[in-house]
Amino acid sequence: MAEDVTLSVSDAVELAKGQVSRWPSMTVVGEVSGFRGPNARSGHCYFEVKDGGASMSVIVWRGTHQKLSFELRDGLEVQLTGKFDIYKGTGRMSFVASRVEASGEGLLRQRIAELARRLQVEGLMDDRRKRPIPAFCSRVCVVTSLSGSVIEDVKRTLARRNPLVLIDVAGACVQGQQAPASIVRALGVAAASRPDAILLVRGGGSLEDLMCFNDEQVARVIADCPVPVVTGIGHEPDVTIADMVADRRCSTPTAAAESVAPAIDEVERQMNQRHVRLGRSMAALLETREASVESLARLSANAMGARLSRLEVQVEGLGARRCLQDPMAPLEARAADLAQTEERLHDAIPRSLSRKAEELSGQASRLRGLAPRMLRPAEAELGRLAGTLDALSPLKVLSRGYAIATDDNGHVIKEACELQPGQAVGVRLGSGSVTAQVLSVNPREKGTVPFSTKHQFPLRGEPPWQTRRASRT
User: Fold this and answer.
1) Helices 216-224, 179-192: crossing angle, 10 deg rounding
2) Dihedral class, residue 123 (left if φ above 0, else alpha if ψ from -120 to 50, else beta)
3) Among 395, 452, 377, 400, CA closest to 421
4) How would you label 179-198 residue by residue, b for 16+ Cβ within 10 Å and e otherwise?
5) 244-248, 344-348, 370-374: which range is least confident on average?
6) How far apart are CA 322 and CA 336, in angstroms?
7) Is the pLDDT of residue 107 over 70?
8) Beta-sheet strands, E only, within 247-369
9) Tell me: the pLDDT tens digits for 160-180?
């Protein structure tokens, strides 16, 4: 027998690690227990997987965990693929999983969770979408299996709590592959009868038994149902997608029946209590109103008395006025005022006229002295302009011996060529005028126009030279 070899801890762990690393990759199925992770710093996950006889440590690196489409948690059945490894620092052997999949019931729960997340994103589980359940349902329709004990439990519960509630039943298969389609048909029949509420109920069972209530089509029909749906599926821990989208979820079928049918004795008790409270409230309200009316009546009487007093004082004041006691008094007072005004006016007019006359006399004196002074510059300017105008006047030129000849139309003749022999012309002199007749026309000579002195009438005081000049012409 060979002697034992003495090794250090590091060597021993290294030897074991080398032996373990040569083991082939394997697939292990077990239940997750003691899950820790992902680690805040590294992102790795650590937990145990166990079955009925053993357990082992498992490590899932961060990269592998990030690829998972479901959440690892305690109680989940998983299928792990990987290899064993020994951590040198502690000498502990762990199974390093390179692939993690849900297995058995865990796979079912994974699918349920994925469907629930998708429906939640669509808003089918939003509380704002859910319809209110009537407080007192007069007619309900139960969707469940007709062969089980659930329907009898629901009927007994409704009959015990409130026998006034009418019950309709729509039979459906609540387990197996045909169950989802059967539940959808039964919900359609129940909704068509237009009850106050629909009870979708089933007794307890395994996760596989309740999978028909995790069906997507069933969930969408419940969400779209025009009648409020109350579910009572399985027992307290069982929660299905149908419960999540229903308008109300109850833990059991009996609880669902009780939620839509309040106990008749409880209803009677509440009605009696409310009747008493209503009577008391009405009595208190009437007392309050009566006190308010009495207070308002007193205030109204006081206000009316005060107003009548004020009106009485006003009427007495109006009655004491002189115009009402002696209607002629205002006219007489007005006549006396007018007489006084007339007298003052007669006295004031002469004084006013005298003052105005004195003022006008003074102003006239000032104007008489002011007018010559104002006219002197204008007179001087007028004399100067008159002298200038007289110097430039054609009459002044005529007075120096010149004459102006005009034709029959009065047009001034400037050229000899404008006349014809025998034509009559008018001649304007410095003093007076004569009418002459043209004897001949010589347009080449300037300043001489031959004419006859027929009908000459020298004006008195004419210079002799003007008459002689006319004769020579």
Assistant:
1) 10
2) left
3) 452
4) bbebbbbbbeebbeeebbbb
5) 370-374
6) 16
7) no
8) 248-250
9) 888 888 999 999 998 888 889
* Rounded Cα distance, 452 and 454, in Å: 5
The per-residue pLDDT of the chain, averaged, comes to 83
Neighbouring CB atoms inside 10 A of 86's CB total 19
CA angle, 155 as apex, 154 and 157 as ends, to 5°? 65
Measured in whole angstroms, the distance separating CA 351 from the mean position of its chain's CA atoms is: 79
Within 8 A by CB and 6+ apart from 124, the residues are 219, 220, 223, 244, 245
The pLDDT tens digits of the residues spanning 48-100 come to 999 888 999 999 999 999 888 778 888 888 889 999 999 888 888 999 999 88
pLDDT higher than threshold 60 for residue 422: yes
Would you state the pLDDT for residue 182?
92
Of 46, 17, 42, residue with least CA distance to 34: 46
Torsion of CA 300, 302, 303, 308, to 10 degrees: 120
Contact at 8 Å (CB) between 105 and 70? no
Confidence of residue 105 (pLDDT cuts 50, 70, 90): low
Which of 225, 220, 215 lies closest to 233 in space, CA to CA? Answer: 215
Q: How many residues does the structure list for the chain?
A: 473
Burial class (CB in 10 A: 0-12, 13-18, 19+), 60: buried
Cross-strand partners of 57: 48
